[in-house]
Amino acid sequence: MAEAGSQRNGTGGGSGGRTDGSASGDGSGGRTDGSASGTATGGRTDGSTGGTATGGRTAQLAHTGLRHGWTTGACATAATTAAYTALLTGDFPDPVTITLPKGQTPAFALAAEEMPEDRATAMAAVVKDAGDDPDVTHGALVRATVRRLPAGSGVVFKAGPGVGTVTRPGLPLDVGEPAVNPVPRQMMREHVAEVARRYGGAGDVEVELSVDHGAEIARSTWNPRLGILGGLSILGTTGIVVPYSCSAWIDSIRRGVDVARAAGRTHVAGCTGSTSEKVVVAEHGLPEDALLDMGDFAGAVLKYVRRHPVPRLTVCGGFAKLSKLAAGHLDLHSARSQVDKGFLAELARQGGADAELAGEVAVANTGLAALQLCAARGVPLGDLVAVTARDEALAVLRGAPVAVDVICIDRAGNVVGRAAPRGPRGEG
Predict the structure, then answer these.
(1) Counting CB atoms within 10 angstroms of each CB, which of 67, 72, 76, 83 has the fewest?
(2) For residue 6, is it left (φ>0), alpha (ψ between -120 and 50) or beta?
């Protein structure tokens, strides 16, 4: 549910101070203030898995000097793991260690735990720490209540107080489902299975997720507009919140371009996140120091490459974000630019959509919904957005000797649109 927003408040910086519920980068382990220890079992607090990088995503994050945090999905996974362990053993692990999709193993202290004498359920809670990211969920208490289900039920998710429910189509979840994104669901399923294997459980459980004051916090996010009602979304693709100070991140982008040029790279890629980065590596085999963590700052990449050219630039990102670039926005953050459904409708018309389809696109709930409507009727909206975004990028480059191609992807990393490389004089 990328378009639900990253649940940030849209500001450009974050405080460097720590509060109860902060991330501990010293590996001290079992804290009691509800904080997350980023190195308790070997996980690095910079989000990497080891080594010293001079370029690429890891080096950019290190260069900003900002402290990363944990997603609501990581917090929910930690709470679920602790609760299910207690359900099977009678004891809550504190701190509780989880494994993130990229292999990091942070440990989270429990802020609350509860289990009745009959051990029918177990509840564990973790404080969400967003690091230096301006995230409205920073400090929220994420709870998981786990109860046994009949054999063969698998893991069933339930929205508790403060977690939203999907009420409109166009999101990666069916209408009526709890607003728990696919990657956090997978993380929780994997950890439930591991706990079941370790302690002899069946792994058939209901996981009810709740966030204290989540309904109130959600009013500051895009959830109500998208039909996610009743609370927040449980989000995350890597488990790590990458902090964005505009000035620091733009400076890190420039440093990334400099490193790539110094290494003799002739092809770099500006990526909006970790999923698009994986797609670019799979498509082009680019080394780490050729990968620019563009985030929302498309303009920063294009303007710096204009002054410091690299022969080829691939721009890869989510369909909705790149539709903003296609519409002329250079800052892709949800607080500063929105998906223009009218613009998408006009592109669809240019691609052969009839008036009825164009009208449906113009009122679609999300960019993804617009894309799905067009795909069902054979209108290549993804390609149209990619081509228009490429041409907009070339306009910003103002004739610099750079060939640009664009790849649009969906939340799962599937390519949904492409624009072939084109240079300043139209050459391929």
Answers:
(1) 67
(2) alpha
